[in-house]
Amino acid sequence: MHGRTRRGFLGLGVGVATALAGCLGDSAGPGGTGTPTPNDGTGATDTPDRGNSAASLAFNGADRLHRVDAPFPQHDGEDHYLALLTESDHAAAFPTERFQSGDASAFLGETDFSRAAVVVVHDRWSSSVPDLELRDVAVEGSTVSLTSEYPGEGGTDDVTTDTMLVRVRTDGASPTAAEATIHPQYGGSIHLSTEDEDVTATVGD
User: Which secondary-structure segment (H or E) carries 137?
Assistant: First the structure.
């Protein structure tokens, strides 16, 4: 058991020097199939954003993810992992068995990569409640930018992992980078980018 819990880790706000489907309408987002369910860790949910239809899936308990020997953009920091999958070959190369979740594997398998990309955001030191929630996502030039947060004011004392998959419509474009901003429960933010191995962290009041 690692000494850090989300309560302690996010309370301090430091020590982070390195952390969509089918048809439109009643679909779970672009590029896949199925009906969205509430984002309770077991299903995908549609997410309003800056003009780009998206779906997300959040869950905990995955094996800790690290850099994969595959040709897609990745960030592998001390506490967080970030990846951008833009081709079916990328999804095939991703170690989905480490998700420990059939829903997560299906989320990737349902994605039509001619229309969408998937961003993987992974927090290696977290608690099982609450899960990450997607707040905003957009394709800006060649970069997929998203914002997520841990809702509420407190977590549990267990230590596990939090993972969020975000499927975002690309309209045929092929993004080459991803960036993610995570807002902890106790203020501040953590910024990750596949173009930079450093992590930018701000501490809340």
Answer: strand 133-140
Domain boundaries, the chain: 6-203
Who has greater pLDDT, 52 or 13?
Answer: 52
Please tell me the pTM assigned to this model: 0.74
Tokens 């910024």 -> residue: 191
In the three-class reduction of DSSP (H, G, I as helix; E, B as strand; rest coil), residue 19 is classed as: coil
174-200: pLDDT as tens digits: 899 999 999 887 778 999 999 987 666
Which residue type occupies 127? S
How does pLDDT run across 86-130, given as a tens digit for each residue? 999 999 999 999 998 899 989 999 999 999 999 999 988 776 667
Sign of the torsion angle spanned by Cα atoms 60, 66, 70, 71: positive
Closest by CA position to 84, among listed 150, 149, 143, 43: 143
CA dihedral 36, 37, 38, 41 (to 10 degrees): -100
Cα dihedral value 165, 169, 170, 175, nearest 10: -20
Q: Can you tell me which residue has the tokens 């990750």?
A: 192
Helix (H, G, I), strand (E, B) or coil at 20: coil
Strand-pair partners of 139: 144
